[in-house]
Amino acid sequence: MTWLITGGAGFIGSHVVKAMAEGGERIVVLDDLSTGRPERLPEGVPLEVGTVLDREVVDRVLREHAVTGIVHIAGKKQVAESVAEPLHYYHENVEGLRTLLEGAVGAGVTRFLFSSSAAVYGMPDVDLVTEATPCAPINPYGETKLAGEWLVTATGRTHGMATASLRYFNVAGAATPELGDDGVFNLVPMVFERLTAGERPLVFGDDYPTPDGTCIRDYIHVEDIASAHVAAARRLAADPGASLVLNIGRGEGVSVTEMVGIIQDVTGRTDVEPLVTDRRPGDPARVVASADRIAEELGWSARYGVREMVESAWAGWQLRHP
């Protein structure tokens, strides 16, 4: 079978491509290169440049490459941008997915794997977030991911397509320096940027109801994200009736203060005192995944720890910011 990976030239997508290619899967990538880079792709993996919003492109790629399964990673993912441009996010993330699914049904695709997000949960007031935790997204990005899950599940049920939606928690790290994250929207690269510029890293609020007063998050290495995709793809191939929604996390919380300390240690900038500033609106105190269900369903668990995430991300940052 052949898997189409949308957004495969991006940060997470390129790691999934690498892992699936190394696992012996046949792959084709569809990417509009708005944030992706062709050089991220392994040698021999074909790249089709285009958008999932273009039905003619989708139909041609599915037909010419005899695609039987899709891993849909392409989409917009910046929370603040989604608040400022909700119409754009719904168009890109929901209409893009609808167009892709419509093409998939027409082409007889039998497996569909959707990249979702922990943003679907919003501000859960629980120690561990399970897949049964009520979803109450607090921004348009999270809303589009939840709507996407509904659309994937409904399409699979109606058209006999095996489906899975994977809810990522806080992604960090890199498999190789060349595949590092180009964006500066998450805690690890944000601290790298401040330290590289000789500035104090920012901590948004230290008065949360947590042991050290700062937010607690579940960080997951991007290589673990990729291996979870491989496991899910194989499950869909083996189980035509699958309809899964799964968290991808480590089940361990790390506070912002702890994470900044690890980053400072790895970068050698332990002499810089973090600067505590106001809370950001909508930041929940604690969001940590329960990873029990994905272990039960796929036999998957995370391999990498937080320090390995930071060390690998730092190697990539230094490559791009010599």
- List low-confidence stretches: none
- The SSE string, one letter per element, is EHEEHEHHEHEEHEEEHEEHEEHH
- Please report the distance between the alpha carbons of the first and last residues: 42 Å
- The helix content is 40-55%
- CATH architecture identity of the largest domain: 3-Layer(aba) Sandwich
Q: Evaluate the radius of gyration.
A: 19 Å
Mean pLDDT, to the nearest integer, reads 96
The general outline is globular
* CATH H-level superfamily of the largest domain: NAD(P)-binding Rossmann-like Domain
**Based on the structure, what is the oligomeric state of the protein chains?**
single chain
Main beta sheet: 7 strands, parallel
Portion in strands: 15-25%
Q: Assign the CATH class of the largest domain.
A: Alpha Beta
At the third CATH level, what is the topology name of the largest domain?
A: Rossmann fold
Number of domains: 2
Can you walk me through this structure?
By secondary structure, the chain is α/β, with parallel strands linked by helices. The protein has 2 domains: 2-171 and 219-248, NAD(P)-binding Rossmann-like Domain (Rossmann fold); 173-217 and 251-289 and 296-320, UDP-galactose 4-epimerase, domain 1. The protein contains 10 helices and 14 strands. The protein has helices spanning 11-22, 55-64, 79-84, 86-107, 140-159, 187-196, 222-238, 256-267, 292-298, 306-320, and strands at residues 2-6, 26-31, 47-49, 69-72, 111-117, 162-168, 170-172, 202-204, 216-217, 219-221, 243-248, 254-255, 275-277, 286-287. A 7-stranded parallel beta sheet has the order 3-2-1-4-5-6-11, with helices on both faces. A 3-stranded mixed beta sheet has the order 12-9-14. Strand 1, helix 1 and strand 2 (26-31) form a beta-alpha-beta unit. Helix 2 (55-64) packs parallel to helix 4. It is globular. The model has no long low-confidence stretch (mean pLDDT 96).
